[in-house]
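ok posting inputs for the thymidine-5'-diphospho-beta-D-xylose job
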Amino acid sequence: MRLLVTGGAGFIGANFVQLTVAERPDTTVTVLDALTYAGNRASLDPVADRIDFVHGDIADLDLVDELVSGVDAVVHFAAESHNDNSLAEPWPFVQTNIVGTYSLLQAVRRHDVRYHHVSTDEVYGDLAPQDPPFSEHTAYNPSSPYSATKAASDMLVRAWVRSFGLRATLSNCSNNYGPYQHVEKFIPRQITNLIEGVRPRLYGAGHQIRDWIHVEDHNRAVWDVLDRGRIGRTYLIGADSELDNRTVVELLLAEFGREPDDFDHVTDRAGHDQRYAIDAGPLREELGWAPRYADFRAGLSATVAWYREHESWWRPVKAATERAYTDAGERTISLP
Ligand code: NAD
Ligand code: TDX
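and the output
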């Protein structure tokens, strides 16, 4: 199979490309990535001589058309992906997540190429503590500019399936963690703070809940959907690992031998979603998927070890990322 992977220099995309090269020798991989602040060529170093890398924008219609004409399938990871950035400056999210997806859809439609769309559980909004988890029947109700643009891109895919018969599938996954995740995100930010001897930074009281999944489990599910998923269908991906943010910080503090209250509360995120949770029943039952990192604590330990061993990967962007948080107004707060 000839595969085009968009966003392959980002966190989940790079892990997907490495997994594919390691386990699917019959697949040839071309990566299309704009190398924004979130993209890093070094994340593809282990497979650099076994893939083709194209530095370009998914919204470039001519480039995308040419690349899509030469492949059998497209897996679309490229996106602006960070909620906090979408609150500071929404425009790149509209451009990449909506216009960029449009550009890909037109090309796969023209060349009748199989398409898989990688999306997020955030399109469903958030849950109250007693609500049942999200399923593929939950109504879309996004909260942030990020999740609104992801929701819009999902809607484009569904419309192209229905109106033009596109051979597409969608997946909406919960919060990923693992190697190569940018230090702006919650878990790598706190790990790298702790390596530097800085206290973790918890938004507000830290009662928000996320449903964590190891990136490798997400990517194995994407392959299951590519291999055996039903065209036109949406699959929810999650590993039944709901934890509140404060608990995650406490687990990380324990990894570093620090006291459980050795962190700072900082300014809360505007419009902060309370809880995400996924019902991955159809993925498990229909496609036989199951997470290999079913124990979040073990996956978190392995991730801490990875960041300890790969300082040269994250160090160059750490200081600027922390400065951006300070410039955006993040301050230590005391709770009543
Ligand atoms: P990321 O920010 O780490 O990587 C995004 C990649 O896309 C980067 O390499 C970047 O350079 C590239 N990119 C951005 N704009 C581009 C453009 N216009 N043209 C080409 N490339 C461009 O993101 P991630 O966390 O790896 O997320 C990948 C996908 O998975 C996204 O679609 C995201 O919405 C989705 N997702 C992420 C999570 C999560 O927890 N991180 C969970 C569910 C779904
Ligand atoms: O320093 C922090 N302190 C903190 O308490 C940061 C960066 C985050 N948080 C909180 C906010 C969230 O409740 O931690 C939680 C996770 O935050 P993020 O890592 O920013 O993830 P989230 O906003 O939940 O979105 C993520 O999951 C869904 C990804 O970034 C999205 O791309 C994906 O779609």
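notes: The chain has two domains: 2-177+213-237, 186-209+242-272+295-333. Residues 2-177+213-237 form a domain with the Rossmann fold fold (CATH 3.40.50.720).
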